[in-house]
Amino acid sequence: MARAIEDYAMIGNCETAALVARDGSIDWVCLPRFDSDACFAALVGNPDNGRWLIGPKAKARTTRRYRPDTLILETEFITAQGAVLLVDFMPMNTTKPKIVRVVRGLRGKIHMQMELVIRFDYGRIVPWVTRRNDAIVAVAGPHLLSLRTPVNLEGKGLRTVADFTVTKGKQVPFVMEYGSSSEPMPAGIEWRKALRQTEEAWRKWTSRVKYDGPWAPALRRSLITVKALTYVPTGGIVAAPTTSLPERLGGPLNWDYRYCWVRDATFTLLALIHAGYHAEAARWKEWLKRAVAGSFDQLQMLYGVAGERRLIEWEADWLSGYGGSAPVRIGNAASEQLQLDVYGELADCLHQARGSRIGNHDPEGFNLQIELLNRLEKIWREPDNGIWEIRGKKQHYTHSKMMAWLAFDRTIKTSEAFQMGGPVEKWKQIREQIHDDVCRRGFNKTLGAFVQTYGSKHLDASLLMIPLVGFLPASDPRVQGTVAQIEKRLMRNGFVLRYEVPNAKKGLAGEGAFLPCSFWLADCYELMARHKDAERLLERLLAVCNDVGLLSEEYDFQNQRQLGNFPQALTHLGVINTVLNLHAREGGPAHQRSSRHPRRRHKLPGVRRLGY
Question: How far is it, in rounded angstroms, from Cα 393 to Cα 562?
C-alpha cells in the first residue's frame, strides 16, 4: 500500500529535490535537475524501482521537523532500545548534486539498517555497482552515483545493504553524489562543513522575512518551499518536483508537474515582491521573458526549467503508479494547447514588475507586450482549452476571455503610466469589446453568476479571478452573485472544488478540492471586506498542512488526505499571498492586482518612449 502523500517531506538544493518518507526512505529524486530522469522512483512504483532507506530495524515511533528556517530535515526514531536522529539535506552551490544523511545517536543502543536501490531511467535500468577506493559507484550509460560512508556495505539481490549500530553521541554519515560516468568520480565533501554552510545559507535567506504575525510559521515555510522549487541557474520555478501523483486516487488524472507554468507568473511575482524577495522576483521575470521570446503564435503554457519547449509526453508503462494510479506520465502535452489566459498572466506580470523596483527600466519587456497583443488581437475570439487544460473539445471559457481582457488592460496601463507609446486607442476599443463580450455571454442571469463557458449553467472556481484581477470590483452584484454560487455549489467541507462535473462518470468525479482555489476565495473575501470569513478559511487551509508544513495540489476532504503533485508551488504561493493580504489589507497583493485605477506614475529616467 502506498504511503500517504503527506507522509513525505522535501529536501533540495534549488536545482532538484528529493522526497523523504516518515520511515526514512527517499522514494523520489531526479538528478541532476528537477526534470531529469528519476533514479529513485518508488513513489510511483515500488521499492524495486529505486529508493534509499535508512531507519531502525525494530518498530519505531517517528517524529520529524525541519530545523528552523531551513530545508534541513530531522527525523527522530524512538524504539524500545533508545532513540536516533536522522538528518537529511542537500548542500547548495555545489558543482554536482549531493544528498547527505547523518544518523546521530540520542540515547540507548539502536540497531539500524540501510537499503539502497539505484534504478536509473525512472526505475527501469539496473546499474553496474563497483567499489572504488572509499566509495561504491553505480554506473549506467551517462549516469554515475557514488556513496561514501564508514559503514560496511554489501551487495545483495541487486541492492546495497548494511546493518550498523548507533549509540548516544555517535554520528554515522552517508554522502551520495551524482556525476557523469565519462568524467572523474566526484571527490567527496566534508559533511560537517556542508551541514553548517547549508544551515547558514537557508537562515540567511529566510532572515529577510519581516512579517511576524500569527501565520508567520506558515508564511516562512511556504517561502522556503517556493525557493526550493526554484531552479537557481535560470530563475525558473517548477510547479512541483514530482510527476503523476494523482488528482483522483486510482484514476488516470496523473500529470508531470516538473516544469514552469506561465499562468503562475503574477502570483509568483507578487508573492516574492511583497515578501521582500526582489532579486528572486527579478530572476523569475527575466526567466519568463527568455522562455516566451520569439513568435507569439508559438507561445506555450509551460516550459522546461531553462525555457525548453519540447516537453513530449510519454508513459512509463513499467511503473505501477502511486497507489495503482496509472499511467505514470513523463512530459506534458498541455504545452501544445491553446490557453488564452496565459497572455493575460504574462502581460500582468510584466506590468506589476514595472511598477516595482525590479522592472522600471524595461522597454524590451514593453516591446514583448506589444507583440503579445498583436497575436491576441487575432485569436481572442477563438475557443481554447482553458485554465484546467481540458483534453477535449475547445470551448469559449469565460475565464480565458477575461484574461485576454487583462492583457490589453495591463498594457494600456503600462503605456499610460510610463508614457511608453503604442496604439492605445485601438487597444482600448478591443479591451471594451472583450469586456462587453464576457459580461454578455459569460454571465447567466438566471443564476446571477458568471459561468464556466459561454451559454452554460456550470460554475468554475477560476471565476474567482474576476475581482482579483480587477475585471469587476468585488462590490459588483455580479461578482457577489458568483461568489455566492461558488459557496453554494462548489464548496465541500469548507474547501473549493475546481468546477462542476456534468457527467459524474468522467472528468473530476472523485477529485479532491483544489487548494489554490480555496486561497483565491479567501482573497476574494478580503476584497469584499469579509475579513473574518477570510481568516477562518485561511485557518482551515493551514490545518491540512502535513506535520512539516507542506501542501499538495488537492485535498481529499472525505478521506482527509492530500492528493496531486507535492509539494505544490501554486498552493504555497496561495499561502504567501493570502497571509500578506490579510496582514497588509489594502497594501496586500490582492488589492494591488485588483486595482482598476492605479496611481499614475511619473515617467522614469532611462525609459525611452517607444514610437509606433
Answer: 30
**Residue type for position 131:** R
Which comes out higher in pLDDT, residue 599 or 549? Answer: 549
What domains sit in the chain, N to C, each tagged with a CATH number?
5-183 (2.70.98.10), 212-594 (1.50.10.10)
How far is Cα 469 from Cα 265, in angstroms, rounded to an integer? 13
Asked whether the beta carbons of 237 and 284 are under 8 A apart, the reply is yes
User: Taking residues 145-158, what's their average pLDDT?
Assistant: 96
Q: Which of 608, 598, 540, 531 is nearest to 574 (CA)?
A: 540
Q: Can you tell me the distance from the alpha carbon of 254 to that of 247, in angstroms, rounded to the nearest whole number?
A: 7
C-alpha cell at 417: 503610466
Q: DSSP 3-state assignment of 313?
A: coil
Please give the backbone phi and psi of residue 414, each rounded to the nearest 5 degrees, phi first.
-60, -45
pLDDT grade for 95, boundaries at 50, 70 and 90:
confident
Mean pLDDT of 175-198: 93
Inter-residue contact 465 to 438 (CB < 8 Å): no
Exposed, middle or buried by CB within 10 Å (0-12, 13-18, 19+), for 215? buried
| Residue 162 CB partners (closer than 8 Å, separation 6+) | 113, 114, 149, 151, 152, 153, 154
Burial class (CB in 10 A: 0-12, 13-18, 19+), 537: buried
Instruction: Report the sign of the C-alpha dihedral through residues 188, 191, 197, 199, in that order.
Output: positive
| Helix orientation angle between 278-292 and 363-379, rounded to the nearest 10 degrees | 50
Q: Work out the pLDDT band at 468, boundaries 50, 70, 90.
A: very high
Between the two ends of the chain, the Cα-to-Cα distance in Å is: 63
Question: With contact defined as beta carbons under 8 Å apart, do 399 and 460 qualify?
Answer: yes
Contacting residues for 603 by C-beta, under 8 A, at least 6 apart = 418, 419
* Least confident span in 152-156, 181-185, 315-319, 431-435: 181-185
Please tell me the predicted confidence (pLDDT) of residue 510: 63
Alpha-carbon span 607 to 354, nearest angstrom: 11
CA gap 85, 56 in Å, rounded: 10
- The residue with cell 484581477 is 469
Q: Are 579 and 211 in contact (CB under 8 A)?
A: yes
Residue 350 near residue 360, CB atoms below 8 Å: no
Q: Give the Cα separation of 181 and 195 in Å (integer).
A: 26
Q: Which cell goes with 446?
A: 438566471
More confident call, 74 vs 510: 74
Predicted local distance difference test score (pLDDT) of residue 363: 77
Cα–Cα distance for residue pair 153/165, rounded to 1 Å: 13
